[in-house]
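re: ur question from earlier - yeah i can do the single chain one, its not a big deal. heres the input i used so u can compare w yours
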Amino acid sequence: MAKTDTRIQKKNQATIMQAGLEVFSQFGFRGSTLDQIAKAAGMSKPNLLYYFKSKEAVYTALLARLLENWLEPLKAIDRDGDPVEQLLGYANRKLDMSRNFPRESRLFANEIIQGAPRIGDVLKGELKDLVDEIAVVINGWAAAGRIKPVDPYHLIFTIWSLTQHYADFDVQVRAILGGVDPFEGAQSHLDMTLRGLLQPT
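and the output i got, formated as tokens:
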């Protein structure tokens, strides 16, 4: 029978994961240390090592949770729904993730920039398979005249660019906007851009 973690153990694991997210999203995997994570978690390094055997174990656990959350909005696209509204809904969910989980987005971006050494198999496997499935749906919508003809892969890349940018380049965006909340205008711009790109004339 598998051993179940106690409430305190689960709480400590969650604390370490949050500390790891804070450290990794700021310094990247290579620039981060277990000492930094332990300090951010408010615990000793030996105590941290009781829950996670290495820095990589914390990082891998964070990426696994992140990828699971990242794939959910794409899985939620309904092939039987209104195409424009479904794709706009997906884009808005991605924008909400950038607004609410910017550190997670930057962690993911750092991993990709480094060549995705720890999630390359997932990108080429589960993510690619899911994007391929959605591409078939998008092509079907276009063939039926329900949206304008569009390359489905580049459409998805465009949605990622229009949403994740606000998290990954937060400092640059806010500097240019002079402190204005970038998300106040991002959603209306996203809506206008995608409707213009997708709605059949």
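The mean pLDDT is 92. not sure if urs matches, ping me
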